[in-house]
């Protein structure tokens, strides 16, 4: 069967041209089950979903081996956390070029280049001999991840059978598997060597890149794609509500990446204070397996229910307050050198994180200018969001050095309070009268 060229953007695939058409599409989708969705998908969708699983695995891959890298390379904490800081920092800049790249060069080319960059970065990391090399390669990895994730969802939505809902079910499955399995893979391979998780990821992603280049439909003519300028995401932030929501999300994301970047080191610090060695890859991997699983499940199943009951804005504020409380528990655990308490706080933080991935994005997209394509508004929002995460990941080790191991968690709780204040300024009533988009959980997580 001949493959049709891809010309639709994410917005084309998601946004029907009228309310009547939207209702008809919703009725046609009829909320297919996951098994029904699996049975009817073409190979191009399976290939993209496979690559997405591997990309999502990369989120938690480094956490289980962070202490092992520190010992093997004699790396200071300030450089270990840069593995996350530069990874996020490059994605801040990438938010300005992903839409432009897909518009100018085509989504397949953009996606494939992203996969190739991940393969190169992960493969070379397996041969790294010092922490500076790993930091430089994480820049390349972050750029590749941004290019891939910006277009993967568009491919699945555009090519999947069973309607938009079926496509999103498949992408949600990839998200859940990747977030949960990534830390376990990192832990198991990390018992062999800290290099093994990088090599394993490179091999799996190489298979995904080859399959995508071979099986995905070719890009259509450039004239059929909606033009996007590099400056468009920044221009979208002229919308005050989108700007305020993005600032609030930036501070929350700073708290989120305090957990991702600092928790593995805090666990080892507490364990050493109790007369033991650093927490090994298996222990850290199990903690972040629980975190990833709860993040995926709560984002997909809990976020929209809370919005229906309390409203989107109220749901965001409530989840941020819960996250701040969990950070206080983690800080107390670091103060008392309790590995159990820190680990429990990390796992439980996945619940409000999943909710916020969904609802923060939903509030931002509901408050955007209707004249601005949603993909452009999302890129502007993500620009601010990951700016907060990058700054936090870079700062976190210095906070611990200046004020002690519990300090990053206390600062994370303070970030949450600032985020609550920012979201409280959102006065757009439309955010509580529009349903949560089916793909809000995906947009909220895909750049990670």
From TrEMBL:
> Does this UniProt record's set of keywords contain Transmembrane?
yes
> InterPro entries from the entry?
MFS, MFS_dom, MFS_trans_sf, Tet-R_TetA/multi-R_MdtG-like, YfmO-like
Membrane topology summary: Multi-pass membrane protein
Transmembrane segments annotated in the record for this chain: 44-62, 82-103, 110-129, 135-157, 169-192, 198-216, 242-262, 282-303, 315-334, 340-363, 383-403, 409-426
Which SUPFAM superfamilies does this UniProt record tie to the protein? MFS general substrate transporter
Bias regions of kind Basic and acidic residues — which residues? 1-17
Classify the source by domain of life.
Bacteria
| UniProt region (Disordered), positions on chain | 1-29
Q: Might you report a single GO cellular component term?
A: plasma membrane
PROSITE patterns found in the cross-reference section? MFS
Where does this one sit in the cell? Cell membrane
- What is this protein called in UniProt? MFS transporter
Which organism does this record belong to? Gordonia crocea
